Amino acid sequence: MRVAVLGPKGQCGQCVVDELLSRGHSVVGISRTPPKTWPKAGTFESIAVDFSDIKMFSTVLSEGKFDAIVSAFGPPLQDFKDVYRVGVEGHGNIKMAVLQSSYRGPIVIIGGAGSLYYKKGVQLCDDNMFAYHHWYQWPDVHLDYMATRMFDHGQHGFGMFIRGFKWARSNYENPGSKPTLTDPNSLGLIFCSRAALTMWEGVKEAQWSFLSPPWQLRDKGIRTGQYELFVDDSAGSAEPGIHNGIYNEDMAVAIIDEVENNKLSHKHWTCTGPVGLKEW
């Protein structure tokens, strides 16, 4: 298969490209500044596209002879106050380019865990005291991972905040972190990902499926090839995704299985798998 990966350099996109190449598929990485080569063996090429240039973007999708598309787009995290705007605009541009193009194959869009429903009928990001209450329930190892991820993204202040939150949680009954962890600016990535799901729901002109990673998604893990898949609905059929995690490497396995089999068209889904097999 010839597969376009939108956003190949991100933590999800890299694993998707690796998994596609390992299965013998051809990959075309598409972003503003995609890598020209890939360290893993296989057929990789890239096309530089500004997603806000809808005409050029749709032309690339029309003329690319793609069998499938994976959107691993995510807004940069350097400026939290701008994450929501950039994220919503980026997801909207992707949708418009797909629908304005002649491409009508499957597209898997990667969103965020905030869209998943509890069995009580409430989405995670609408739950009481989100995300303070939900960070409070995270194990120490996941807070360690999140701090490291923030440092990797150049968010040193937020990385130090997470380390401080972990310490305060162990030493105080009610650490004073509620304003930060309920501030919309801190939650922009989560809310823009939910907006992306809303953009696609009800669309029949494209074979989309929307993946919300589990709440404890971790990268730099191990590919075990094991995962459990859940299709989400307002009855909370995918609630295990709120309480569990997966490595990006195994989530990529689930994504490429869907690329190859196309069984989840017009579905919102998640997947969980083993974690804690390395330092986190």
Quick overview of this protein structure:
Residues 4-72 form the NAD-dependent epimerase/dehydratase domain. GO terms for molecular function: oxidoreductase activity, acting on the CH-NH group of donors, NAD or NADP as acceptor. It is built from ten helices and ten strands.
Summarize this structure as a short list of keywords or feature phrases.
10 helices, Rossmann fold, alpha/beta, 8-stranded mixed β-sheet, 280 residues, two-stranded parallel sheet, 2 domains, 40% helix
Descriptive notes:
The protein has 280 residues and is of the alpha/beta class. It folds into two domains: 2-123 and 188-272, Rossmann fold, CATH 3.40.50.720; 132-181, no CATH class. 40% of the residues lie in helices and 16% in strands. The chain is built from ten helices and ten strands. It has helices spanning 11-22, 54-63, 80-100, 132-136, 140-152, 156-171, 178-181, 188-200, 240-243, 248-261, and strands at residues 2-6, 26-31, 44-48, 68-71, 106-110, 207-211, 216-218, 228-231, 245-247, 268-272. It is globular and about 60 Å long. Residues 4-72 form the NAD-dependent epimerase/dehydratase domain. GO terms for molecular function: oxidoreductase activity, acting on the CH-NH group of donors, NAD or NADP as acceptor. InterPro entries: Epimerase_deHydtase, NAD(P)-bd_dom_sf, Polyketide_Oxido-like. Belongs to the avfA family.
